[in-house]
Amino acid sequence: MSSAEETGDGEPGGRTHTGSLAHRVPELGALELLLAVARLGSLGGAARHLGISQPAASSRIRSMERQLGVALVDRSPRGSRLTDAGALVTDWARRIVEAAEAFDAGAQALRDRRDSRLRVAASMTIAEYLLPGWLLALRAQRPDTAVSLLAGNSSAVARRLLSGEADLGFVEGVSVPAGLDSAVIAHDRLIVVTAPGHPWARRRTPLAARELAETPLILREKGSGTRQVLDAALGGLARPLIELSSTTAVKAAAVGGAGPAVLSELAVGEELSMRRLVRVPVADVSLARDLRAVWPTGHRPTGPARHLLSLTRSQRS
């Protein structure tokens, strides 16, 4: 008596159930082929129905028979007929294929739900001056996707992504917030601006970086990408003259003559051209910065988020 028979384990002949289920159960395509043979009564007809060659179909049936250890199809010049074992396996296969179809339908429903909305979180400069164009391009290509935009500073963008409140984010700080992966999607530069009546507007020499660092400025709040970049570039800042929570508010205060400000070039093009603001050159400091798309580490954007990310790159190029 074999050890399998003595213990009651395994199958007659010493066969045991080893390995994963995927190695013991035929693949879905083979089961679909067997169902087609049962329905059409011909291996050739089943092959044509599934869009494969007859030799490939024969090979798939033989492989399944070897895997199961039983003959499934009797082949003859008059066609193909299921064996008794083949008829039984076909009944089981039908249930598996029906379950797979239900699985596929459910997965498609999940994709449809995912693709029906996109939640974007963006820091203020990007939200005000770049995202509108990107979202218009996305709407032209995906009109059925509803987009919601959450604007805030770079720290708030990171929190929303990590808490699952947003699908894709855009930031403008010095570094990538912890827990996020990123891709550079644009470049920007911060510039010093004042109203035309400010003494700096009449300077004949560039402003020294030290003087800028020691001067109270109209600034964004702590946590904003603009303030992070400026603080890092100057090695520290004086106490703010005014602290405001949006680029538009900082710009309005500067235009009104409240004092000098440091803003993105993207934000002040119109004001500079109309002389409502004057650019003040600064010596010995670089205020260039990268603008980045961000998402939770290890979770590459999919669906509409991936599409929007590709649009930012195409418009950059």
Brief description of this entry?
This protein has 14 helices and 13 strands. It is α/β, with parallel strands linked by helices. Helix 3 packs across helix 6, helix 4 crosses helix 5 and helix 8 packs across helix 14.
Structural features:
single chain; 317 residues; alpha/beta; Arc Repressor Mutant, subunit A; D-Maltodextrin-Binding Protein, domain 2; 2 domains; seven-stranded mixed beta sheet; 48% helix
Give a description of the structure.
- With 317 residues, the chain is α/β, with parallel strands linked by helices.
- The protein folds into two domains: 3-113, Winged helix-like DNA-binding domain superfamily/Winged helix DNA-binding domain (Arc Repressor Mutant, subunit A); 118-316, D-Maltodextrin-Binding Protein, domain 2.
- Helix content is 48%, strand content 21%.
- It has 14 helices and 13 strands.
- It has helices spanning 3-7, 21-24, 28-40, 43-50, 54-68, 84-115, 124-129, 131-141, 154-162, 209-214, 225-234, 247-255, 265-273, 303-316; strands at residues 73-76, 79-82, 117-122, 146-151, 168-171, 180-194, 207-208, 218-220, 242-244, 261-264, 278-280, 282-283, 288-296.
- Strands 3, 4, 5, 6, 10, 11 and 13 form a seven-stranded mixed beta sheet that branches. A two-stranded antiparallel ribbon has the order 1-2. A two-stranded parallel sheet has the order 7-12.
- Helix 3 crosses helix 4 (43-50) and helix 3 packs across helix 6.
- The longest helix has 32 residues, at 84-115.
- The radius of gyration is 33 Å and the shape is rod-shaped.
- Residues 1-14 have low confidence and may be disordered.
- Pfam families: HTH_1, LysR_substrate.
- Belongs to the LysR transcriptional regulatory family.
- Residues 26-83 form the HTH lysR-type domain.
- This is Transcriptional regulator.
- Residues 1-20, 297-317 are annotated as: Disordered.
